Every structure is written in structure tokens, then in C-alpha cells.
Automatic annotation (TrEMBL):
Residue stretches making up the DAHP synthase ferredoxin-like domain: 1-68
Keyword line: Transferase
Protein known as: 3-deoxy-7-phosphoheptulonate synthase
GO biological process, one term: aromatic amino acid family biosynthetic process
Gene: aroF
UniProt entry tagged with the keyword Membrane: no
Molecular function via GO: 3-deoxy-7-phosphoheptulonate synthase activity; aldehyde-lyase activity
Length: 338
């Protein structure tokens, strides 16, 4: 159940009202204070609550029952967009466009630092790179692991770019203490034990949509993290598996406006993993921005032909520079004209 209180409702009235709800109806009350109103989200068995009685209170503006199983990720509970702010002032979800760019896999300090410098010059605000790589084949390159994390940190020191990289298991959480954004990959979207532990971490989590996950399943995975106390969740659409085999996955651009209508969490798009083809990355990135994405995550490699991982979907720094110019120009146009 969601109760929206009138702007003139005093703090004393809010306190007395929430105390009454928790004691009389045995529900948990989450409170969100917005600019113009206060919203109360009731979690638990609300079937015994007389909705007409609640609506009759002078300080109540509206009340409605919620059917969706996700409460903390639900826009009905949290009408205003969540904005994720990193330590260097970069904000995701505030109406700006942020680009996370870098190699699929960290290969050497020279490689990742050179790419970081190039993508920063083109406007990227966050460095992406894989230290731990989940691969379909056990014989494929699995990443440099802890050494890869150290190389990402070296690139951050050289460029000032925050880093986002993927975690694979609960036991690795301590290793990610100095990572700016922890990524949960598509294969781990429903690794609920990992999500529970990340709920205890005071750090943004980039949650990728699972290979065949519905939007509700995706939001429920975000709910696992938020239920643990961590509200800093960024959703990432990276394509889903369909009957089409021409592309690596099928990029679900409709998910962007759908999720934004259902949830207050920021949404970024990964056209690299979605398409698997470098020549499709730019048009899909442009389409994602047009659909309302808060950010993009793009794979960039200085020598894609010899990349140890996913070279076919990686852009060169020059190609990324061209893409960045176009998407930023589109974002500016949308801001001024739409």
C-alpha cells in the first residue's frame, strides 16, 4: 500500500501516523521525503487496513494498493528519480548522459591505461573493464582476476576515471572495496546470495538484466539488493536471448521506457554485448539515448583484432570518439527540444 501525504503534513503528524500503522496493523513503513510530498510505503499484510479510513485523514492526499512484488524499486513508492553520485561528482540518473567505456577484459597496464586516456578525451566519465570474466567455454580467457583489479586502479590513478568491473562471487567482495561501481553480470542476476551480500555494501551496483529475464524478474533482483539496505542500484539492459541468431542477443529498447515507468532507478544500456557486432554498436547506442537511457556502457579496445575477449564487438578509440560526439549531440538536442 502507498500513502501520499499532503505537503502541509507536519513531522509530528507523520510520526504519529506511522506509529499507529506499525502498531495497529503490524506492517513495516518505509518513508520517502520528496520536494513536494512525503510518501509512505507499507510492506506486509495490508488486507486488514481500511483504505477508506486512511483516505479520510486530513493530511492524506491519496492512498492506493500496490500489486507489484517489488516495493523499494517501485516508482509508486519513490516518485522521484534516484540519482547515483560517485566520489568524483559524476551523477547517473540526473538527466545527463554518462558513458562507461573501456576494454571487455583488462590485458595489461599499458593497454587499459591507454584506452582510459583515449575514452576520457572523448567524453567517457567512467572506465569499464573486466578483471574476472565469466566465459561460456572453460578454455577461454578468464581474465587477470586480482591483478586485473590492480591494473584498473592504476588506470584510475592515471586518468581520474571511476571504475566499474564485474564481481563473480560473494568471497570476492572484500577485493572490490576500492572499486567505484560493482557490476553484477547477466549470469549472476539471480545469484540471490550474492545480491543479498551486495545489499550490505555501501557502493553503487550495476545490475545487468539476465539472458532470458523478464522485466519483473530483473526488478526483483534489484529488490534483493535494496532490501539489504543498499539503494544505489543502476539497471543495465544488455539484450535478451530470443529466436534471432544474427545478433549475439536482442537489444530490448522498449525496456528503457517500461522500466522508467515502473521504477525510479537509473537505466543504462550495453549495445556491445547486446549486438556482438562492432558496426551495430553506434546505431543501437543512438537509439538507446533516444529511448531515454541515462547512460551507455561501451567496449573499446585499441586493437580489437587481437583482443583476448570479445574483439568483434569492440570499438576502436576513434570509432568510440565518433559515437560519443553523436550521442552527446543527440542528448543536448533532446534536452532543448523534447
Amino acid at each position: 500500500m502507498i500513502i501520499v501525504l499532503k505537503p502541509e503534513c507536519s513531522k509530528e503528524q507523520v510520526l504519529m501516523f506511522t506509529d499507529m500503522l506499525t502498531s495497529q496493523y503490524n506492517v513495516k513503513v518505509n518513508k520517502w521525503e520528496g520536494v513536494h510530498s512525503t510518501v509512505l510505503g507499507l510492506i506486509g499484510d495490508t488486507t486488514q487496513i481500511d483504505i477508506d479510513y486512511i483516505d479520510a485523514q486530513d493530511f492524506v492526499e491519496s492512498v492506493k494498493r500496490v500489486q507489484e512484488p517489488y516495493k523499494k524499486a517501485n516508482r509508486k513508492f519513490h516518485p522521484e528519480n534516484t540519482v547515483i553520485e560517485l566520489s568524483n561528482g559524476v551523477k547517473i540518473g540526473d538527466g545527463s548522459l554518462q558513458i562507461m567505456a573501456g576494454p571487455c577484459s583488462v590485458e595489461s597496464e599499458e593497454q587499459v591505461t591507454e584506452i582510459a586516456k583515449r575514452v576520457k578525451l572523448s567524453g567517457a566519465s567512467i572506465l569499464r573493464g573486466g578483471a574476472f570474466k565469466p566465459r561460456t567455454s572453460p578454455y577461454a580467457f578468464q581474465g587477470l582476476k586480482a591483478e586485473g583489479l590492480d591494473l584498473l586502479k592504476a588506470a584510475r590513478k592515471a586518468t581520474g576515471l571511476p571504475i566499474v568491473t564485474e564481481i563473480m562471487r560473494v568471497s570476492h567482495i572484500d577485493m572490490f572495496e576500492n572499486v567505484d561501481i560493482i557490476q553484477v553480470g547477466a549470469r549472476n542476476m539471480q545469484n540471490f546470495e550474492l545480491l543479498k551480500e551486495l545489499g550490505k555494501v555501501n557502493k553503487p551496483i550495476l545490475l545487468k538484466r539476465g539472458l532470458s529475464a523478464t522485466i519483473e524478474e530483473w526488478l526483483m533482483s534489484a529488490e534483493y539488493i535494496m532490501a539489504g539496505g543498499n539503494d544505489q542500484v543502476i539497471l543495465c539492459e544488455r539484450g535478451i536471448r530470443t529466436y534471432e541468431t544474427f545478433t549475439r542477443n536482442t537489444l530490448d529498447l522498449s525496456a528503457i521506457p517500461i522500466v522508467k515507468s515502473l521504477s525510479h532507478l537509473p537505466v543504462v544500456v550495453d549495445p556491445s554485448h547486446a549486438t556482438g557486432k562492432s558496426w551495430l554498436v553506434e546505431p543501437m547506442a543512438i537509439a538507446a539515448v533516444a529511448a531515454g537511457a541515462d547512460g551507455l556502457i561501451i567496449e573499446v579496445h585499441n586493437d580489437p583484432a587481437h583482443a583476448l575477449c570479445d574483439g568483434a564487438q569492440s570499438l576502436t578509440p576513434d570509432q568510440f570518439d565518433s559515437l560519443a560526439k553523436k550521442v552527446f549531440k543527440l542528448k543536448d538536442y533532446m534536452k532543448d527540444n523534447i
